[in-house]
Amino acid sequence: MERSRIVVAGASGLIGGALVRSLTADGHAVVRLVRRAPQGSDEVRWDPEAGQVDAAGLAGCDAVVNLAGAGVAGHRWTDAYKARIRDSRVRGTTALAEAVAGLDVKPRVFVNGSAIGYYGETGGRAVDESAPAGDGFLPSLCVAWEAAATAAAEAGVRTAFARTGLVVSRDGGAWGKLFPLFRAGLGGRMGDGRQFWSYIALHDEVAAIRHLIDTDGLSGPFNLTAPTPLTNREITAAMGRVLRRPTLCAVPTPVLRAVLGEMAGDVLGSARVLPTRLLASGFSFAFPDVESAIRAALRA
């Protein structure tokens, strides 16, 4: 891709920060959406939960990437916090998509965040992008989150959805909480360990988003997960092998439910998700298996 002007919402997050570093390293001009007063020409003011964005700051952009949203892990899912999770994604996406649709010269592509939570509980059944939405809070959230980008798509902007799995990184997200536990020898399976986890190395997550930006014709949902989802028990064993630590400290289901509340359903739930459309589009994973993804995270 030629050097471009790319707007990124959620640039301070784990994935957004890594994406900005990658784009900047390749000479692209990155404009960050910020919630405070802009401190330079590379920042644009917005308030996602209020549904407000300075549309004039988007003029001349070649691509818009929206990865913004209140954190799902690290907070108990009270009714108030669930509303914040939803509003930060749905209202922010709606405002950004409408701003993009209203530009005289529109960007080539709008890449919007989403999650494999779209599919809900799948058990041992493998699903890909052709599967319908599941039931529950996360599936309904993802459906509304993706629908909020309708204005951009209807305005003729190529719109793609990055349905992201568990990102393997030491620096944040759910996996960022696992590394210290396993290093201390306190890692272990969660619940019965038979639930499938669909993961992706942070490097591949960024590369896949850039693939969606760069590749003409790619629109609709894409699962950003490695091609080999594994059970929690298998991932626990892999973490132990790579870190050379015991993995005997299993966390019983009742304890998880007591500590995490409703979010425990996401930890204990099974999502066996395949990146069918991403692979068909020509994307190649640098770290397709969990051990290579863990080692890549340790080197980062």
Give the gist of this structure.
With 300 residues, this protein is α/β, with parallel strands linked by helices. The chain has helices at residues 14-25, 79-101, 137-147, 150-154, 173-183, 202-214, 232-243, 253-260, 264-268, 276-280, 290-299; strands spanning 5-9, 29-34, 43-47, 52-53, 63-66, 109-115, 126-127, 158-164, 166-168, 196-197, 199-201, 220-224, 230-231, 272-273. The chain contains eleven helices and 14 strands.
Number of strands: 14
CATH fold type: Rossmann fold
The CATH class: Alpha Beta
Give the termini separation: 25 Å
Question: Biggest β-sheet: count, sense, barrel?
Answer: 8 strands, mixed
Look at the helices and sheets and give the structural class: alpha/beta
List the quaternary state of the chains: single chain
Which whole number gives the mean pLDDT? 92
What's the helical proportion of residues?
25-40%
Evaluate the radius of gyration: 19 Å
Going across the biggest sheet, name each strand in turn.
4-3-2-1-5-6-8-12
Shape: globular
CATH superfamily: NAD(P)-binding Rossmann-like Domain
Number of helices: 11
Which helices and strands appear, and what pairs or packs with what?
Elements (H helix, E strand, L loop, with lengths): L4 E5 L4 H12 L3 E6 L8 E5 L4 E2 L9 E4 L12 H23 L7 E7 L10 E2 L9 H11 L2 H5 L3 E7 L1 E3 L4 H11 L12 E2 L1 E3 H13 L5 E5 L5 E2 H12 L9 H8 L3 H5 L3 E2 L2 H5 L9 H10 L1
Parallel strand pairs: 1-2, 1-5, 2-3, 5-6, 6-8, 7-14, 8-12, 9-11
Antiparallel strand pairs: 3-4, 10-13
